[in-house]
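User: Predict tRNA-binding domain-containing protein's structure from this.
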Amino acid sequence: MAAKQGKARKLIALFCKRINSTEVSQESLPLGVEVEEEGKGLGFICRCIVEAAGSPAADQLLGTTPEMQAEVSQWLSFASSFSGNKLNIDGRLKLLNVHLENRSVFAGRGLEISVADLSMFAVVHDIVTEESFPELVKLPHLLRWIDYIQSKDEAAKVYPHIPVEKAKFDPPRSSPAATASKGTSVLAISSSVRSQTTTTVSDTAASSELKAEATNVEVEVSKAVEVSVKNDKKAAAAAATTVGGSQGDEAAAQESSKKMKKEKPPAQKKESDTSVSVLDIRVGLINKVWKHPGADALYVEEIDIGEGSVRQVVSGLAKFLTPEQMLNRKVLVLRNVKPGKVRDVLSSGLVLCASNSDHSQCEPVLPPEGSKIGERVTVPGYEGSPEEVLNPKKKQFEKIQPDLTTDDSGIAKYQGKPFMTTAGPCRSSILNGTIK
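Assistant:
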């Protein structure tokens, strides 16, 4: 315990030193912490060191809002109580993995490390290095977070590096002939194409896929009924013109046909080309990510959106997130854009991202925890059927995009109404931003 606390204290002192550009001495700690720390939990000691360091370290590591401070306090308490037998610890590690599914850090919705992350890293690192947990490879979100924290210089000075197996670089290849045969056209950045690479679909993804197929069947049945009704009317008109054979009968048939035309119900109005309902937005999971071979600012990702095979997507996020932060991350994918090339890389889809006014911050909009891969994201009041493929000539997305924003709570919205999944609204850590 003393060794664990000693490393944790050193780690936090190094972070405070970098933020404040000053040393955090042992004498600056509150009275009693040094001599009575054996009776205190790790979270309590971590808090004391940060509070003793003062601003701006205390503000950054403990949070400045009541919500952030409450989250940090909960995780500090959790760090102090993180102990028990192997079964108990396994369960807690799985809990941490679930919590990090849609997060980069433990407290807050952004990428900024808090004292909650530092205290939890001290606990988790001690467990991973002391015990062998084969189940750890099944916790990709926890591993992603471990790799993010240990990539910081302060952590590298205190803790041994934990090997984290990352996705192998194996981008799909296609010949020029195969590329030409697909008849694709050029699109704006963030378009993407279905990858021919198959992937194992989880039970959740398979369920989502079946639901998507059921929805498609309903649409097709509805269309078939409409066609059948139209054909019946045409057949009735044709029969009316052929019954009898006399000129009088023909005249009667023509009169009947005219009446049918007059009584024809008005055509249903199509959804506006500028309504958000024409967009087919799906919850996806990034399975693989690598740098675009021809552009430093771009990533190429393989994303599972519940179709049975992954899609290849090009996104301009290389300046804002590391590949490790992208991997195993849930995102929103606009799936019905027309396939095209981005710097000679085929792609079909668009990862929806939020950015601030000067575009110095940008990140994918996150679906909520519990949302299912492949489920469609809707906006209340705009639940109509989406276009099969958006028409680039109509510039549908370009007309809709100015109304896509995040509010002062980070919730993604269209004209003030939230992006919804079965698990709740989608959101971003970027407040009052724009979505592209």
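The chain has a mean pLDDT of 75.
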